[in-house]
Each structure stands twice: as C-alpha cells, then as structure tokens.
Write a structure and sequence with these properties.
This protein has about 950 residues and is an alpha/beta fold. It contains 31 helices and 26 strands. The protein has a seven-stranded mixed beta sheet, sandwiched between helices. A seven-stranded mixed beta sheet has the order 16-22-21-20-19-17-18, with helices on both faces. Strand 19, helix 23 (about 655-665) and strand 20 (about 670-675) form a beta-alpha-beta unit. The longest helix is centred in the middle third of the chain and has 39 residues, at about 335-375.
C-alpha cells in the first residue's frame, strides 16, 4: 500500500471493498461498470495531460515555496479591501475547523441550529450598523450586492414608473470602479440605463427610479447622503448606499436617513484579503421588500414543542422555485465568511468596534495633519479612514516601493491612503517619512495619535448598535471558544457522517488542501497590488486555469465568477457577446429542459434572454423530438441551450451529442451546467460532448468545502470562439481581447480558495482524478443496488446504471401517510443529513455518496434507509403518532419524565446499534416554517417578540 499516494487518502473504498461492491452491483470489474454507465461515443480516447501527482508532503512544500513569490507589503490601497486582524480564536475554531467548513447549506434546520444562530448574529450586526429593518445572510461580494440592489429597486418601481417605462439609475462617480463595472454588466440585459455623475449636481428627474451612493466615496470623501436621500424621496427615487461596514461605527446609519437598501462587504471584520476573496457581502433593506430580497434570510420560528428555533425564512421565494420569474439567480451565500465576520463583532462587541474604528480614524487624522505640516494638500473635507493627497504620484510611488508600501495612485497628481485596523503608530510615521523624502524635508515623528474628529456634523453616529447580549458577553477567548463550540455541537457536518446530497457533491475537503489558506503570504495580498507582488498567486491561478481547461476539453478559463450561479450568468453573457460580435443581436432565445436547475432560467432572464422550456421523456431524459422542434422553430433567434450532464436525474443521456448538434445546426451555442462534473472528470468532458461553455462548481467537483452554504467558486471554461469574451476587470488586466465587463468584484474572484482546487488536482494527477470519478460512479451504483427492494430508483441509464447520483422515489409511501420530509427528519435520528429532498422531482430523494465515502459508511447509510423503510411499512395513514412523524427526537424528549409515544425511547433515539457509539442529537424538534414566515423576525430579537406572535 503506497501510503504517500493522496488518491489512497481521498478515495473511500479500499481495493478489497471495491471487489465486494462490484459483486453486489453484479459486474465483474469497475471497467465493466463504467462501460455500462457512460455512452461509448462520448468517452475520452486519451488520458488527461496533467502533471504527475504530488504526495501531500511534496505539495505542502511546493505551495510554501510558491507563497514566497508573493510579496506582503504594507498596503493602504483601500477600494473595498483592507488588511485585517483575524482573532486567533476565530481562525482556529472556525476557519480551520471542519465542524464549520464542511457543513452544508442549512436546509435541514433541526441539525443546523449552530450555523443558523451564527448567521442570525451576522444579520443582526448588519441591521444594527446599517439601521435597516432586514438583512440577508450574506452575498458574494460588495459589487454583486450593489448590482442586486439595483435589480431590486428596478423590480419594486411604482406602478406609474413601470407604466411610464422609467429605467434610469443614477450612479455616483465616487462608486468603487469594480462596482461600476459590475453594474454595467448587470444593467444592460435587463433594460436599465446607467447615468454616472456628481451626486451634488444630480437633478432628481422623474426619469430615474433609483440611485446608488458610495459612503464614504472611493477616494475617502464622506458626502452628505442625508440631504441626497431627502431630495430623492421627494422625487420618488429610491436610494441604495454602498457603505464601509467599519465606518458605520463612526458614521450614522444610512437607514436613519431613509435609505432603501444598504450594501457592502464585511471583509474588514477579521476576514483576510486573500487576493480578492472569498468575503461576505451584506445586503440590508426595508421589510417592505422582504419578498424581493436576493439570497437567503435566517428567521426565528418555533419547533413542535413551542421552543425557539431558527431556519431559512421565506424559502418559497428561493430561485429554484421561482425559476424564470426570479429577479435574481443568487441562491448562495458566503456563510463561512459571514460566520467569521459575525463572530468578530461578537468577540469585540460595540465598545471593541468603537476602539478599532477610533484608532483607524485618529490614525488617518494624525497622518493628515502631519502631511499638511509637510506642505501637502489633503483634499477630503470629511473622511473616516482614507486621505486624498495632492502629490506627484510617480515620485511617491518610487519611494513607497523602496519601503515596501502600497498606496493607490488614481492619477499623476493624486495619492490616496486608506488606513486600516493593522496600522500602527510606527506605520503612520513610515508613511510620513515617505512623503517627507519626496519633498526632501525632515520627517515629522508622531509620538501619539491626534484624537480629533474629521466627520461632518450631522453625519456622525448617534444611534446605538450591538446592544443585545450576544455582542456583550463573549469578550474573553475562553468564553468565545466555548460559545463557538456550543454552536458547532448543534450542527451535523462531514466530520460526523456522510452527507449524501445529490447535485451538491459533499466530498472530502482534505486538510492538506486547506492548510495554506491560513498562511500569511496567501491570506494578506490585496487584489489590486502590482503583479510583481502576486507572482505566487498568478502562477497558481494560471496553472489552475490550464488544469481546468484540460479537464473540460476547452480553450480557455476564467476564474472570476465566485459562485455557480455567477458562472451561469457569466457563461450566458459570454455567449451573448459572441453573438453580438457577429451582428446577431436578435439571438435571445434560451432553451432550458424542464429538469434543469432552478438557477438556470433565472440566469437566462438576468442575461436578457427569453426562456423556452423543453420537455422531458417519461424516463427523465430530454425529449429530443420536442427539442428539435423548438430549436427549428426559433432557429433565427436561438441563442443557446442550458443543459446539465449527466442529467439532473442522474443519467448519462445517450442522445447528448445529437442534442448539441441540433443546437449548433440552428445557430445556437451549448451552455453546459457543470453541477455534475464529478461524473465526467477523466472519462468524458464538455468539449468532447459538443458544448461551447460550461461552468464548474469548484465547491463540488474540485473539493472546496461548502462552508454551510459558501464559499464557492464557479469558473467558466469556453471553446475557442468564446475565449475572447472572458470577463475583465477595470483595475487588473484579465479576460479575453474583447472581454465583457466584470462578473465579480475581484479580478480572479475568490482567489484564496482556488488554492484548494489547485491542490486537489496537483495531488491527484490525471490517474487520480479519473479514479475519483470512477469511484463516485461505483459508490452511487453500490447504494442503488443495496437499496433495491426497499426503494425504487426513478431513473437509470440504458443498462440500468446510475451516474454518480440517483433519485429514489418516496411518493408511494403517502399511502402510509409518510411524506419524503418525514424520511429526511427521521434520518437525523440515525445520525445522517438527508439527501437532496424533492429536487428535481417532488416526493423523492436524490442521493450522491461521492468518491470519498468508505464502504462502511455507505453501509451504515443503507442500513438506516432500509430500517426506515421497515418503519414505514409498520404505520398507516391514520396513525400520525409514529416514529417518523415525530422525528427528529431530541435529548429533551428522551430525558423527559413523560413519554407519550407508542414506541420505546430506544426505538426513537437508537434505532440501530451503530447509533449508540456516535450519537448526534438534534437540538430542536421539527421546525414550523409557516409560523416563522407569518411572523418574520430575522435578528437576535428578545424572545417576547415572537413567543406572543
């Protein structure tokens, strides 16, 4: 046994286990299983060209050497990204803790109460600091949040504005440049006209439905947003404010001035810059817009016993249900980063945040005074942390470079300096020295900070924030450590048991892949530093792009999209740009199979396309005849098709090449949703199948952990004709020769976590990634065979095989009064997270074990499922007091003096022997979603606010 081989550690079933599994399936070899599963005409004829696999030790040495090519300078660039201090207690107990980073999106609330509470803290923090009634559980980055704000304000226009076709949106010229680029990307397809200008000169015309301001502006000036909002309200213009979260400790909350939406990033709250991400954006608005808010909201409700419980609120407005009626395709959040930012606020509390914000402000004020004493002019009349200095930028830049210091140089005559949490008094003196050298004057040495205020009267914060107990009781490391642990114990993550979610690929996130994320030379790089300071990053990112290009069989890759949904949108926008470059502006029809992911139609609408749905056959495949008919009907206007492969039903459709050819014959492009790429790598690929673009979920196939619902990365890989249109960035050269405007704020999206996928491929190599795909197919078919006789598989391939996932049909159990939700909740008592519930078919479970799970773990899962089937067989429709309907069973129930159930406590909590050895206890009984939606509370409100509702 080669214990150095990473594949041995990553792939679950041992060689002897695989033989037994193949016997259970009824095939002689793994090759036979693959032959019977994947259509022969799409199989790759050559091995992937990837570098030889590294051992874990070799990889860690390699990635350490690569990190030394990154140069960590003192950075004062600002523009939405700042050096931070990540408290070690948060780094060790959350960022580096698989109990937090391997958790799934909290759809199963009863086993996710810890994450839900942490996110509720985050929402409360955001609501308090912004002064808004409602905040979501985070978005992807500030620029995306600003674009979502524009879309929301466009959607909630008054009836008269819609009737009059009012479509202008004012953008302050002080907006961050990356945000402006993303607003341009998102505005055009939906018919919004951007008008960029000086907010003091805006005429508040009735032709405008909304506006967005930057607070403070990109150059640090704090403008009078109060007066602007007052005038806008009189003109029925709704206002979004992009606000620096730390500045809101010193500046009055925009909500107090009447803002309609407040957005920004929480990166300043202890989250490393990571060359641009991942970071948790925030989005806060009025309760009146609760049905239009993008992303996810955590709300308070009660469980069966009437106890306080948390869950994702308003789930019926999720994009996979609203589909082409959705105003956004954002169904992801940056949960792990939001948890970190929320814990930063918990740890420091209001007084700690005031101390940090005051230190930043006083450092900036002291620096301004010293530079003015040296003869420089400081242009900002009101500022929080950023100074705008009149100076010869070329000269300053040369001296700063010698000091290993980064400023921002917007033009030849201006230097901006953004002070941050890490800036010390000696750092301030070093900046003064740099500017003194430029004038050949003697430097000024400060011995203390000047505690003066440089915020315009009327804009200073007077309102309280973070007054609730959670932000005022965990300020020692001991207490915070215990609080974090208490929340972690409420969550079922991959470090406890298999999470067999179809379409979501909850595979091993190897420790060797994760370790470098905490290393300073990866964590502390600003996304807009000169390329010479990011050579390690650029080498790694280029190598990852090349790896993904090879794996997908395409010509180019962009890592910029920072979620799968963003990848979908990016792919469609690239297709749109390609058609337009050929004069085909009229091509706007997007064909989407009825079984597609819910974000697919939402993405198409956002890209300005018209959705035409194609039928599925009884076997769950795309109806080729219907597809051909609709493609030919719309051939003059056909833009593309969006197709998932293997299908969302867990089947390799044999007609896939015919399908792609039909689209090409009718002038369209083929977009392939990469959700199921874990069943392709090394065996087939989108290019070989005939696709033109695909997005990849690096948080699925390529081992980035889900983190409770984020971070994710959704790069797009494209064929040669689409490569010129890959997305760019206004500050860093990226993308193709004819690059579309930005898809995400940072040039390379969530660059820090790209290290994980880079390591995954480096350590597996061509043979390893192919073996992983084969093992994923083996594991799925093993579970399918083991469950045969207890559960029917809804769809399978021509030889009766599943792909890497399968759908089991639970609809027949309604005859016993049992719904698929009851099975999902009962699985918790057995120590398992439910598979994907009722997607893509209502009343079913979609099961995907991944390649990382061992035979022993899959056997435990199958034993649990078969045991549940036996329990179903023992109940009737009239018998509602049963072990399934009452699931999950909590420790409170089991230890109560009263037991009013017709089954034993042991049957409830320990239905199989293995459960006794590693029992996971749900902390609440089944939650009441309807009650929570009727009484929407999305902050850490006092208990009285909802118990009497």
């Amino acid at each position: 046994m080669n214990t150095n081989a990473f594949a041995l550690r990553h792939i679950g079933p041992r060689e002897e286990d695989q033989k037994m599994m193949l016997e259970t399936i009824g095939v002689d070899s793994l090759d036979q299983l693959i032959y019977e599963t994947i259509p022969d005409d799409i199989r790759l004829q050559k091995d992937l060209k990837l570098a030889a696999p590294m051992t874990e030790n070799e990889y860690l040495n390699h990635i350490h050497e690569l990190s030394n090519k990154n140069k960590v300078y003192k950075t004062y660039i600002g523009l939405g990204y700042h050096p931070t201090i990540l408290p070690a207690v948060i780094q060790r107990n959350i960022l580096e803790n698989p109990g937090w980073y391997t958790a799934y999106t909290p759809y199963q609330a009863e086993i996710a109460q810890g994450r839900l509470e942490a996110l509720l803290n985050f929402q409360t923090m955001v609501s308090d600091l912004t002064g808004m009634e409602l905040a979501n559980a985070s978005l992807l980055d500030e620029s995306t949040a600003a674009a979502e704000a524009m879309s929301l304000l466009f959607a909630v226009r008054s009836r008269d504005q819609k009737k009059a076709g009012v479509n202008k949106f004012f953008v302050s010229e002080l907006i961050l440049p990356q945000t402006l680029s993303l607003l341009e990307t998102r505005a055009l397809p939906i018919g919004v006209e951007l008008v960029i200008g000086n907010e003091e000169e805006f005429d508040f015309s009735s032709n405008f439905f909304g506006a967005i301001l930057q607070y403070p502006g990109k150059d640090g000036q704090v403008t009078d947003i109060k007066t602007f909002i007052e005038k806008a309200q009189l003109a029925q213009i709704k206002v979004a404010v992009a606000a620096d979260i730390l500045s809101l400790v010193k500046l009055e909350a925009p909500g107090k001035f009447g803002a309609d939406v407040v957005v920004g990033t929480t990166q300043r709250f202890g989250v490393p810059m990571g060359y641009g991400g991942p970071h948790a954006a925030y989005f806060a608005t009025k309760e009146a817009y609760k049905r239009d808010i993008p992303g996810r909201i955590i709300g308070v409700t009660k469980d069966t016993n009437g106890n306080r419980a948390l869950r994702m609120a308003l789930q019926t407005r999720e994009q996979h249900i609203k589909r082409d009626k959705a105003t956004s395709n954002i169904c992801t959040a940056q949960v792990l980063l939001a948890v970190m930012a929320g814990m930063y606020a918990v740890y420091h509390g209001p007084k700690g945040l005031e101390f940090i914000a005051n230190k930043v402000h006083h450092s900036a004020a002291s620096l301004a005074a010293a530079l003015e004493e040296l003869g420089y002019k400081q242009l900002n009349t009101s500022f929080f942390d950023t100074l705008q200095i009149e100076a010869k930028s070329k000269k300053i830049k040369s001296i700063a470079k010698d000091h290993k210091v980064n400023f921002f140089y917007p033009n030849k005559h201006t230097v901006t300096i953004s002070i941050n949490e890490t800036t010390s008094l000696s750092d301030v003196n070093e900046i003064i020295e740099i500017f003194a050298k430029a004038t050949k004057k003697k430097t000024i040495k400060l011995t203390s900070l000047e505690e003066t205020n440089h915020i315009t009267e009327g804009l200073e914060r007077t309102s309280d924030f973070l007054t609730l107990d959670v932000f005022n009781k965990y300020h020692s490391e001991t207490e915070l450590m215990r609080y974090i642990k208490s929340l972690e114990r409420k969550d079922l993550s991959l470090n406890h048991s298999m999470i067999s979610l179809g379409s979501c690929t909850m595979k091993l996130n190897a420790a060797a892949e994760m370790l470098p994320l905490s290393w300073a030379k990866w964590a502390n790089i600003h996304p807009f530093v000169p390329a010479k300071q990011a050579k390690g990053y650029l080498t790694m990112l280029k190598s990852l792009e090349d790896q993904l290009t090879e794996i997908t069989g395409f010509a180019g890759t962009s890592l910029q999209p920072n979620s799968g949904a963003q990848g979908e949108f990016a792919g469609l926008m690239v297709i749109k740009a390609y058609h337009e470059s050929r004069g085909d502006h009229h091509r706007n029809i997007c064909l989407i199979p009825s079984s597609a992911h819910g974000t697919n139609p939402a993405s198409a609408v956002m890209a300005g396309m018209k959705v035409v749905v194609t039928k599925s056959t009884d076997k769950g495949n795309i109806d080729v005849d219907d597809l051909r008919e609709k493609a030919e009907l719309h051939k003059d206007n056909l833009s593309c098709i969006m197709v998932t492969y293997p299908s969302t039903h867990g089947v390799y459709e044999s007609a896939i090449k015919e399908i792609t050819q039909i689209i090409h014959d009718n002038g369209g492009q083929v977009y392939m949703d990469g959700a199921n790429m874990n069943a392709q790598v090394g065996l087939t690929n989108p290019g070989n199948i005939g696709a033109d673009v695909c997005h990849l979920n690096l948080h699925k196939t390529f081992a980035i952990p889900h983190g409770g619902g984020g971070p994710g990365v959704g790069p797009i890989c494209v064929a040669e004709q689409l490569a010129p249109f890959l997305p760019g960035n206004p500050l860093v050269k990226t993308g193709g020769k004819k690059a579309i405007t930005a898809i995400s704020a940072a040039p390379y999206g969530s660059a820090l976590v790209c290290l994980i996928s880079y390591g995954y491929i480096k350590m597996l190599g061509a043979e390893g990634v192919t073996a992983a795909t084969k093992a994923a197919i083996l594991n799925a078919n093993y579970i399918k065979s083991r469950l045969q006789g207890s559960f029917d598989t809804l769809y399978s391939g021509e030889c009766g095989r599943a792909a890497h996932e399968m759908i089991v049909d639970c609809r027949a159990f309604k005859a016993n009064g049992i719904e698929v939700t009851d099975i999902a909740k009962r699985l918790m008592d057995y120590g398992f997270h439910a598979p994907t519930v009722s997607f893509p078919v209502a009343g079913t479970l979609m099961i995907e074990p991944t390649e990382s799970e061992s035979k022993e773990e899959m056997d435990r899962f199958c034993d649990a499922m078969i045991s549940i089937k036996n329990e179903i067989d023992q109940v009737t429709k009239d018998d509602t007091n049963n072990v399934l309907k009452n699931a999950p069973h909590t420790m409170e129930m089991l230890t109560s003096d009263e037991w009013l159930f017709p089954y034993t406590r042991e049957e409830a909590a320990f239905p199989l022997d293995y459960v006794k050895h590693n029992k996971f206890w749900p902390t609440v009984r089944r939650v009441d979603d309807a009650f929570g939606d009727r009484n929407l509370i999305c902050t850490c409100a006092p208990i009285e606010e909802y118990m009497d509702a």
